[in-house]
Every structure is written in C-alpha cells, then in structure tokens.
Amino acid sequence: MNLANRITLVRIFLVPIIMVLLLINVDLKPLAFDDFSITWNQILAALVFIVAASTDGLDGYIARKNKIVTNLGKLLDPLADKLLVAAVLISLVEMSKLDAWIAIVIISREFAVTGLRQIALLEGSVLAASKWGKWKTAVQITMIIALLLNNFPFAFLHFPFDQISAYAAALITVYSGYDYFVKNKNLIPVA
C-alpha cells in the first residue's frame, strides 16, 4: 500500500462524508445574502468535494513520479472517481438541484467506458485518459461545485452558470464516451 494508493483510498472514504453532509438536514441557520441562501452543510460538502476531487490528479502524479504505479492503483483510481461523481450526482438529484437525466447520462457513460477499459485490460492493454476525458472531468467537477454552492457567485449576477455547466457536462460527457468507443472499436467484439 503505497502513498498514491492511500490518497486514492482517502478519496473513497470522503464519499460517505460528502453524502452525509448533503443528505442529512441540520437545523443551522443558512448563510443568506439578499435572495441568495446556502446551508452550512452544502458549504462543507463543497469543500470536502474539492479536497476529494483534487486528490485525483495528485495520486496519479505521485505514482508516476515515484514509479510506484500498481495494479491496485489502476483499479482503485477510476473506481474512486466513479464513486465520488456518482454519489454526488445522485445526491444533487435527490436535492432537486440536478435533472435526473443528466445524472443518468453521466453515470451511464462512466459505466460504459469502465466496461471498455476492462475489455482492454483483458486484452493486455490500458486505455489512458484522452484529452476529451480530461475535459469531461474538469467540466463535471466545475458543474458539481457550482450546484453544491447554489450557483455562487453567479447567482448575484443572475447568470445560470450552474445550469449551463450541467448541460455542458452532459454534452462533453456524451462526446468523450463516443470518442473512447470510436478510437477503441477494435476492442468491441462483433458477433
């Protein structure tokens, strides 16, 4: 169990903490300015999410830099990413902050690409993240933070950045999934 894998495990252990913060109602007075309001739970959940999301690049960087890339890390890292994103998306749907269809599109793409990666592993190769996959991750994280923070600071400008980022995340998620499958169609068995 090296440092990179420990960081990945921390990301997995932060998932239930974020969910508790989002889904358990605590009767603390929300933080409010004019017509903007946000619960302390959401602020804490957003901070924990930012910490968890930032460990994604950190664990991979440490593993590559120190030449400690392991099969366990190759398995845990994408699993941790999927757990984090899926748990928060489902929580946001439950909180009526995200349309269910967007969460379904994003989670379905994650399962499909994970399946393709598993096929590649069985064939003896590893599918590296594409530039579209990296953009997809960045847009999804941006969207999640905007939704967790009730569109702060854009709410003061009456600009629906959170909703625009949700649609952008859905579009880039679909395109990045399409890109993975087109570039790796040789891995898909045709009967």
From TrEMBL:
<feature type="transmembrane region" description="Helical">
    <location>
        <begin position="164"/>
        <end position="182"/>
    </location>
</feature>
<dbReference type="Pfam" id="PF01066">
    <property type="entry name" value="CDP-OH_P_transf"/>
</dbReference>
<comment type="pathway">
    <text>Phospholipid metabolism; phosphatidylglycerol biosynthesis; phosphatidylglycerol from CDP-diacylglycerol: step 1/2.</text>
</comment>
<comment type="pathway">
    <text>Lipid metabolism.</text>
</comment>
<feature type="transmembrane region" description="Helical">
    <location>
        <begin position="38"/>
        <end position="58"/>
    </location>
</feature>
<dbReference type="InterPro" id="IPR048254">
    <property type="entry name" value="CDP_ALCOHOL_P_TRANSF_CS"/>
</dbReference>
<dbReference type="GO" id="GO:0008444">
    <property type="term" value="F:CDP-diacylglycerol-glycerol-3-phosphate 3-phosphatidyltransferase activity"/>
</dbReference>
<keyword id="KW-0472">Membrane</keyword>
<dbReference type="GO" id="GO:0005886">
    <property type="term" value="C:plasma membrane"/>
</dbReference>
<dbReference type="InterPro" id="IPR000462">
    <property type="entry name" value="CDP-OH_P_trans"/>
</dbReference>
<keyword id="KW-1003">Cell membrane</keyword>
<dbReference type="InterPro" id="IPR004570">
    <property type="entry name" value="Phosphatidylglycerol_P_synth"/>
</dbReference>
<dbReference type="InterPro" id="IPR043130">
    <property type="entry name" value="CDP-OH_PTrfase_TM_dom"/>
</dbReference>
<comment type="function">
    <text>This protein catalyzes the committed step to the synthesis of the acidic phospholipids.</text>
</comment>
<keyword id="KW-0443">Lipid metabolism</keyword>
<dbReference type="InterPro" id="IPR050324">
    <property type="entry name" value="CDP-alcohol_PTase-I"/>
</dbReference>
<keyword id="KW-1133">Transmembrane helix</keyword>
<keyword id="KW-0812">Transmembrane</keyword>
<keyword id="KW-0594">Phospholipid biosynthesis</keyword>
<dbReference type="GO" id="GO:0006655">
    <property type="term" value="P:phosphatidylglycerol biosynthetic process"/>
</dbReference>
<comment type="similarity">
    <text>Belongs to the CDP-alcohol phosphatidyltransferase class-I family.</text>
</comment>
<feature type="transmembrane region" description="Helical">
    <location>
        <begin position="7"/>
        <end position="26"/>
    </location>
</feature>
<protein>
    <recommendedName>
        <fullName>CDP-diacylglycerol--glycerol-3-phosphate 3-phosphatidyltransferase</fullName>
        <ecNumber>2.7.8.5</ecNumber>
    </recommendedName>
</protein>
<keyword id="KW-0444">Lipid biosynthesis</keyword>
<feature type="transmembrane region" description="Helical">
    <location>
        <begin position="138"/>
        <end position="158"/>
    </location>
</feature>
<keyword id="KW-0808">Transferase</keyword>
<keyword id="KW-1208">Phospholipid metabolism</keyword>
